[in-house]
Amino acid sequence: xxxxxxxxxxxxxxxxxxxxxxxxxxxxxxxxxxxxxxxxxxxxxxxxxxxxxxxxxxxxxxxxxxxxxxxxxxxxxxxxxxxxxxxxxxxxxxxxxxxxxxxxxxxxxxxxxxxxxxxxxxxxxxxxxxxxxxxxxxxxxxxxxxxxxxxxxxxxxxxxxxxxxxxxxxxxxxxxxxxxxxxxxxxxxxxxxxxxxxxxxxxxxxxxxxxxxxxxxxxxxxxxxxxxxxxxxxxxxxxxxxxxxxxxxxxxxxxxxxxxxxxxxxxxxxxxxxxxxxxxxxxxxxxxxxxxxxxxxxxxxxx
Length: 303
Ligand code: GRG
Description:
Blueprint: H1 3-21, H2 30-40, H3 47-58, H4 63-84, E1 94-95, E2 98-99, H5 101-105, H6 107-127, H7 134-151, H8 156-166, H9 175-204, H10 209-236, H11 239-242, H12 248-251, H13 257-261, H14 263-283, H15 290-300
Antiparallel strand pairs: 1-2
Helix pairs in contact: 1-4, 2-6, 3-4, 3-9, 4-6, 4-9, 7-9, 8-9, 9-10, 10-14, 10-15, 14-15
This protein binds geranylgeranyl diphosphate (GRG).
Geranylgeranyl diphosphate is lined by residues 44-45, 47, 77, 80-81, 83-84, 89, 96, 156-157, 160, 189-190, 230.
């Protein structure tokens, strides 16, 4: 199976699992179920769940065991996009090629749908895979800790807080400081969840600690490459391909890799990240897995 076919096959499984994992009436009001579904099924790339399943597979595990974690990570990612688009944050009206949730359902419902997706992610992680096997229960508990750490104040929420601060013109520093600060901010804001996706897959796949640590380090490189390419696409991309408003970061005066290093150097940096990720995966003995192909996909994507 070539990578494109692999990606499509995994995505189809993920779409079905996401729909099955989402609460629906009568357990919850139709309004919040509709709002969650609107954002969740708007056609994202499913990078985090694909990475999670590929990681479980790469370490010799059963990807089905990692599917609840894969879905939980996409729930959390979707919540972060809903909240990031709110008027109080990035105030964006387009996401994944559609009007943002607060535009169609109102700010209150967008806040609630984000809150619900975050909470349901942890309900799912605690519930599935259903098992009494102590070894699998231990993996589930470990994954809950990894995902919570990545989503919380030391992870994605912390990164978003740094981003809010960096958007204030009076906080702009010297170029060297900006580069370090930018890297630190993205490591938390987007890197933490991408790392958690790969680590959760490796944990549920039954990898040992050395392999989990290398997968995690490789995913940190993938996360940085992803962000660098995101910045480049924000400059180069057309709204129709991106599914969101392009050029927003530059217009908002936010520091970006494209602005700091230029497009060509930024692309070279992203490629170097993928080379480092490949080296780490090779050290872990899983150099020829789908994880490597996911790295190439990240740097070569157009949206
Ligand atoms: C509101 C707590 C809170 C956090 C928001 C991740 C994040 C933090 C905000 C997203 C803002 C943004 C556009 C960041 C750039 C990188 C990124 C996460 C892009 C969107 O992820 P993709 O490209 O989206 O994986 P799809 O739609 O394909 O899932």
